[in-house]
Amino acid sequence: MLHLAVFASGRGSNLESIARAISSGNLDAEIALVLSNNSTSGALAFARENGIPGIHLSGKTNPDPLDFSSRMKSELKYHDVDFIALAGYMKKVPPDIVNIYTNRITNIHPALLPAFGGKGMYGINVHKAVLESGARITGVTVHIVTNDYDVGPIVAQECIPVLDDDTPESLAERVLEIEHRLYPAALQLFARDRITVNGLRTIHQPPA
Ligand code: GAR
Q1: Is the pLDDT at 155 greater than 90, yes or no?
Q2: Could you report the per-residue pLDDT of 98-108, keeping only the tens digit for each?
Q3: What are phi and psi of 68, to 5 degrees?
Q4: Is the entire prediction scored with pTM above 0.85?
Q5: What is the CATH number of the domain that holds 120?
Q6: Is residue 88 a contact partner of residue 10, using CB atoms and an 8 Å limit?
Q7: Domain count, the chain
Q8: CA–CA separation, 199 vs 100, rounded Å?
Q9: What distance in Å separates the CA atoms of residue 152 and residue 164, rounded to the nearest whole number?
Q10: 178 close to 160: Cβ distance less than 8 angstroms
Q11: Is 16 in the pocket of ligand 1 (CB under 6 A)?
Q12: How far is the CA of 199 from the centre of ligand 1 (A)?
């Protein structure tokens, strides 16, 4: 069972899909904390409406980087968090948090990595880059977070075709549907202790 913190900056539809998977018995986890850098995010509103502890932590609340990461650390400790799921979190996780939670932080990315990742590759920018590249497939990647953007070990991927009449928005919509299914399923692999990491590769143990 995972004691999860979900970090999210915006709408929070991935947070909702994680919460749904938990209530329908498909994900052995509890959301112990929702953390957002955006005080008006849908994610924090969802937390409030559902009785989940939610905190706003940003450069506004804690301008000093050391203070920021020590507040993050103490909130995670206070809420007994043993795993962090980034779900549309548009900020870098401080290195000392990544080091404490080695191989225990995942991110969902709305394209196939390592082709379409890196700084500035988030949200609609990713879908624009996919279309501009002429790629005929795109998809979703769930990966482990390291101290560099979008390059940690890949846990799960699923692809879909890019259609001739796709726009960044239509791609975003179809990709999001996959995200909502793939992320809870990937987290369940961790909840069941089925993932080990070997360099850049993840090894998936068969179900018990
Ligand atoms: C999702 O599409 C997620 O993959 C993307 O932001 C969106 C958040 O939506 N994340 C990134 O681009 C990170 N590089 P949501 O707030 O509705 O979950």
Answers
A1: yes
A2: 999 999 999 99
A3: -60, -50
A4: yes
A5: 3.40.50.170
A6: yes
A7: 2
A8: 18
A9: 31
A10: yes
A11: no
A12: 26
Q: Which of 3, 56, 109, 127 is catalytic?
A: 109
Domain that holds residue 14: 1-101
Strand-pairing partners, residue 7, are 35, 86
Closest ligand 1 atom, residue 90 Cα: 13
State which of 82, 101, 120 marks the end of a domain.
Answer: 101
Task: Please give the angle made by the CA atoms of 144, 147 and 100, to the nearest 5 degrees.
Answer: 75
Amino acid identity at 125: N
Distance 51 CA to ligand 1 centre (A): 23
Grouping H, G, I as helix, E, B as strand and the rest as coil, residue 18 is helix
At residue 97, the pLDDT reads 98
Query: Which residue type occupies 6?
Result: V
CA 202 – CA 195 distance, rounded (Å) = 6
Residue type (1 letter), 189: L
For the CA of 14, the closest atom of ligand 1 is 18
Q: Is 88 in the pocket of ligand 1 (CB under 6 A)?
A: yes
Length of the chain: 208
Q: What amino acid is encoded at 30 in this protein?
A: E
